[in-house]
Specification:
This protein is α/β, with parallel strands linked by helices and 137 residues long. Helix content is 41%, strand content 12%. It is built from 5 helices and 3 strands, in the order ααβαβαβα. α3 packs parallel to α4. It is globular, with a radius of gyration of 16 Å. The mean pLDDT is 87.
């Protein structure tokens, strides 16, 4: 998949009228009542970051994403969401760990999430598996 296709696929999954994790998204206003700091680790394009920015007033939001493509799109979106909400929203291109230092992170060059370990991909169709490329990073 090219970068535009990946972003479009993820945007449909996260920001459409029928978003991924819709039930959790519906709970966000209640869960974040009175919250002043929200951290979204593994933010991808920022589905939960955006929801938090709509719930918090005068809050601080930190969105962490390790995949370079997703991190670039997340940073762009965070600037828009901060301007619209008045919250402080920071996009961090990195990963969360209990240790400091450099880690290896597997990217897929697809809409399949990367991670610390290479995915088995057994849950995907054959066509989807062919589109997943895990370069050495």
């Amino acid at each position: 998949m090219n970068e535009k296709e990946i972003i479009n696929t993820l945007s449909k999954a996260y920001f459409s009228d029928n978003p991924h994790e819709r039930e959790v998204m519906a709970l966000m206003p209640r869960l974040l009542r009175g919250v002043k700091l929200f951290v979204d680790v593994g933010a991808s394009l920022g589905q939960f970051t955006k929801a938090a920015s709509q719930c918090l007033r005068g809050g601080r939001i930190v969105a962490v994403e390790a995949d370079p493509l997703r991190a670039r799109e997340l940073e762009r979106s965070c600037k828009e969401w901060a301007a619209a909400s008045g919250n402080s929203i920071q996009a961090v291109h990195g990963a969360a760990s209990n240790e400091s230092g450099i880690i290896m992170f597997q990217i897929t060059n697809s809409s399949v999430s990367g991670g610390l370990f290479k995915h088995g991909l057994d849950h995907l169709s054959e066509e989807s598996r062919r589109n997943v490329i895990t370069p050495a990073v």
